[in-house]
Specification:
alpha+beta, 5 strands
């Protein structure tokens, strides 16, 4: 039997600070840590839940690209927590790319990369529900009654 501990963050705060270009203190630090936790959970949901988990005292590997995506998602959330696309004040106006407004969620490209790295297939299945119509036909329906030759050639 293996001893498995829950997985923590897929990237650490120091790595996020390097990307951000500054250090986080106080409420900003709490917000950055929460963004890393959220990004890690979202990435695991799309990818492999065991990334970064500790099994028998050994942490499971995290692909470098996965770590980069976690950091990118967390950085977007920290830089733009409200998810604004544009702002203006008087004559000043600023518009950021739509990608920057994604915030704490993954872009389609990030989703596809994570799925590929986790070994998941792009093939999906959908459960469908077929309407059932009750009828007075014989119990063998849709197979014809052997004594009923109508419509058979």
């Amino acid at each position: 039997m293996t001893d498995t501990q829950s997985a923590g963050r897929l990237a650490d705060l120091a790595e996020l600070e390097r990307r951000y270009g500054g250090t986080f203190t106080g409420a900003d630090r709490q917000q950055a840590e929460a963004a890393l936790d959220d990004a890690s959970a979202i990435v695991r949901a799309y990818g492999n839940p065991s990334w970064g988990a500790v099994v028998d005292g050994c942490p499971r590997p995290v692909p470098a690209a996965v770590k980069a995506i976690v950091l990118a998602v967390a950085e977007r959330k920290v830089r733009n927590p409200e998810g604004f696309v544009s702002e203006s004040a008087g004559e000043y106006s600023y518009r950021m790319p739509e990608q920057g407004a994604v915030g704490g969620s993954l872009s389609k490209g990030e989703q596809l990369l994570i799925e590929r790295l986790s070994g998941r297939s792009a093939l999906r299945s959908l459960e469908t529900v077929r309407a059932v119509v009750l009828t007075d036909r014989c119990a063998g329906y849709p197979y014809p009654d052997p004594s009923d030759q109508r419509g058979l050639v």
